[in-house]
Design goal:
The chain is α/β, with parallel strands linked by helices and 274 residues long. It folds into 2 domains: 99 residues, Leucine Dehydrogenase, chain A, domain 1 (Rossmann fold), CATH 3.40.50; 139 residues, NAD(P)-binding Rossmann-like Domain (Rossmann fold). It contains 12 helices and 12 strands. Strands 2-1-3-5-6-4 form a 6-stranded mixed beta sheet, sandwiched between helices. A 6-stranded parallel beta sheet has the order 9-8-7-10-11-12, sandwiched between helices. Helix 5 packs across helix 6 and helix 5 crosses helix 11. The structure holds 2'-monophosphoadenosine-5'-diphosphate. The site of 2'-monophosphoadenosine-5'-diphosphate (ATR) has 17 residues, from helix 6 and helix 9.
Length: 274
């Protein structure tokens, strides 16, 4: 039996076990996908204990994505750029490989819900400057976006990401959001869950071009106040559930060596429990 899983704290509400176990069942693979919840300061010891391959791999979620990068001997370029890993592979020889497929999920979510969107066709905006924001900014760098504008309440945190990612990335304070929105082809909300309400953020979304695509990385609720406002302005929108599911696909491939069975409607399954 092949074992894979997801590590986070808290973990109880993770949708990943539901998604992966549905795919495992439909594919008829001898495998199981397990949720793990190491204590916040114990991730390193937890991951070290899995060396050798009894557990084939792990998805990693909050708050362990940076710690996951640090335990690995081998780090993919995209994980390095994101400064975080959401996927660890435990190799038979005892080494750990860190990867990050969140960026693949993000780009695939745009392709699925905003067909024709081209990340390289103009400036993009990322709201927030935590781990999620850095991951999104790194994905746009890799997708060839000519300019990535990070808007954050605390300018210094946005400047740190810009410093880490280099030339195409610049930092804006929240009160210059309208300037950052000028000419943008996409605006991604990467602020922490629960603060994405229009009242808390009060973003001047009307300053975005009509063709701009608005994306929210959170999916609780599925249609966040930010996305609802975007739809009210008749902008195209992309939700965080699409990103979650579309990063799960490449994770499943890494764990089990095959693509997920397409007949499973994982989105409907997830919507049922959200
Ligand atoms: P994560 O690692 O999940 O991205 P994080 O590091 O806690 O989470 O980052 C949360 C982001 O949401 C930060 O950019 C934060 O802004 P600050 O850097 O100024 O703290 C942003 N955020 C949280 N609450 C906010 C609020 N009420 N208004 C504006 N931005 C907020």
């Amino acid at each position: 039996t092949a074992v894979a899983g997801v590590a986070g704290h808290p973990i109880a509400h993770s949708l990943s076990p539901l998604i992966h176990n549905a795919w495992i069942a439909a594919a008829g693979i001898d495998a199981v996908y397990v949720p793990f919840s190491p204590l916040p300061d114990a991730f390193q010891r937890f991951a070290e204990g899995l060396r050798g391959g009894s557990v084939r791999g792990l998805n990693v979620t909050l708050p362990f994505k940076e710690a996951a990068l640090a335990v690995a001997e081998e780090v993919s370029e995209r994980a390095d750029l994101a400064g975080a890993a959401n996927l660890l592979i435990f190799n038979d020889d005892g080494t750990i490989t860190a990867d990050n497929v969140d960026g693949l999920g993000l780009m695939a979510a745009f392709a699925q819900q905003a067909p024709g969107f081209d990340a390289a066709s103009g400036p993009v905006v990322v709201i927030g400057a935590g781990g999620a924001a850095r991951g999104a900014a790194a994905a746009f760098v890799q997708a060839g976006s000519p300019e990535i504008r990070i808007v954050n309440r605390t300018l210094a945190r946005a400047e740190m990401i810009a410093g880490a990612l280099g030339k195409p990335v610049s930092a804006y304070p929240l009160d210059q959001a309208a300037a950052a929105f000028h000419g943008a082809v996409a605006v991604v909300n990467a602020t922490s869950a629960g603060v994405a309400s229009e009242d808390a953020l009060d973003l001047p979304l009307e300053a975005t071009p009509e063709h701009a695509v608005l994306m929210d990385m959170t999916y609780r609720p599925l249609v966040t106040p930010y996305l609802a406002r975007g739809r009210g302005l008749r902008r195209r929108t992309v939700d965080g559930l699409a990103m979650l599911i579309l990063q799960a696909g490449p994770s499943f491939e890494s764990f089990f060596g095959r693509t997920p069975p397409p007949e499973v409607d994982v989105r409907a399954m997830c919507e049922q429990v959200l």
